[in-house]
Design goal:
Layout (H helix, E strand, L loop, with lengths): L3 E6 L6 H12 L9 E6 L5 H7 L6 E5 L16 H6 L4 E4 L2 H6 L4 H13 L3 E6 L3 H5 L3 H13 L4 H4 L3 E4 L13 H19 L1 H6 L2 E4 L7 H5 L6 E4 L6 H9 L3
Parallel strand pairs: 1-2, 1-8, 2-3, 3-4, 4-5, 5-6, 6-7, 7-8
Bound molecules: phosphoenolpyruvate.
Length: about 250
């Protein structure tokens, strides 16, 4: 059975004190997650260890970084490597979020290197893809997302690919309050699963977790997550409120 995941992406939000409050609130909530259900929380670098400690007693909860560098170590002032994250006991890392592609010029080549290093160090990459509004308006989203996945991931062998989570996040839906309809999400997720199947075979495709991201909220998560190829969500804004994220986690079942 493939994993169903509610993943939070805090981006560059929260003071240390706010982060502690939010994590403590989440740690006090009761969830009865099934064996294949998980919660992943991607916090800013300075809060990773605190988050790990505060959620330590929560089974099926994992802490993620939001990025890592494409080199293993060296003179890259201000950067954080996959090796460092692994040495802190962090299990996941977001790679290729559209904000990083857009504002930090992260190319597919760079993202492929980041993915390789994350996997080498035993981290689970959450590989993001998704088209902007202009691409969608020209109805070129399938081809666009396919290229992002091919260029960022299809150099991996089957074993390595099987450890990757994919997040489809249409840029026009991120932080805009404009969610893709459940049908639009399902259509793209089915397309992604098909191209994964063409490359790695149907069994691998069937086991690949594909998250939807883009204005997921407590009141739309149920409908989105109930689509057959939507395996949970990557959630920005709504993950900064404990009660709202709690609702989203409950929508996994
Ligand atoms: C995101 O940052 O990955 C995201 C989907 O943000 P939001 O939920 O705020 O649209």
């Amino acid at each position: 059975m493939r994993k169903q995941i509610a993943a939070a992406n805090w981006k560059m939000n929260c003071s240390l004190q706010d982060a502690e409050k939010l994590l403590t609130a989440l740690s006090q909530k009761q969830f009865s997650l099934k064996e294949n259900e998980q919660v992943v929380i991607a916090v800013p670098f300075p809060y990773l260890l605190m988050a790990k400690q505060l959620l330590n007693g929560k089974p099926s909860f994992f802490i993620s970084a939001q990025n890592c560098h494409q080199k293993d170590s060296g003179a890259y002032t201000g950067e954080v490597s996959a090796a460092m994250l692994a040495s802190c006991g962090i299990t996941h890392v977001i790679i290729g979020h559209s904000e990083r592609r857009q504002y930090f010029n992260e190319t597919s080549d760079i993202l492929a290197q980041k993915t390789d290093l994350a996997l080498q160090h035993g981290l689970t990459p959450i590989f993001c893809c998704g088209e902007d509004l202009a691409v969608r308006e020209h109805n070129e989203q399938n081809h666009f997302v396919e290229s992002q996945i091919r260029d960022g991931l299809f150099h991996l062998n089957t074993e390595a690919f099987s450890r990757v989570l994919i997040a489809y996040e249409p840029i026009w839906a991120i932080g805009t309050g404009k969610t893709a309809t459940a049908a639009q999400a399902q259509e793209m997720h089915a397309h992604i699963r098909k191209i994964v199947g063409d490359k790695y075979g149907n069994e691998v495709a069937d086991h690949t977790t594909i998250l939807y991201g883009g204005s997921v909220k407590g009141d739309n998560a149920n409908e989105l997550f109930s689509q057959p190829d939507v395996d949970g969500g990557l959630v920005g804004g709504a993950s900064l409120k404990a009660d709202e994220f709690e609702k989203i986690i409950h929508s996994l079942s």
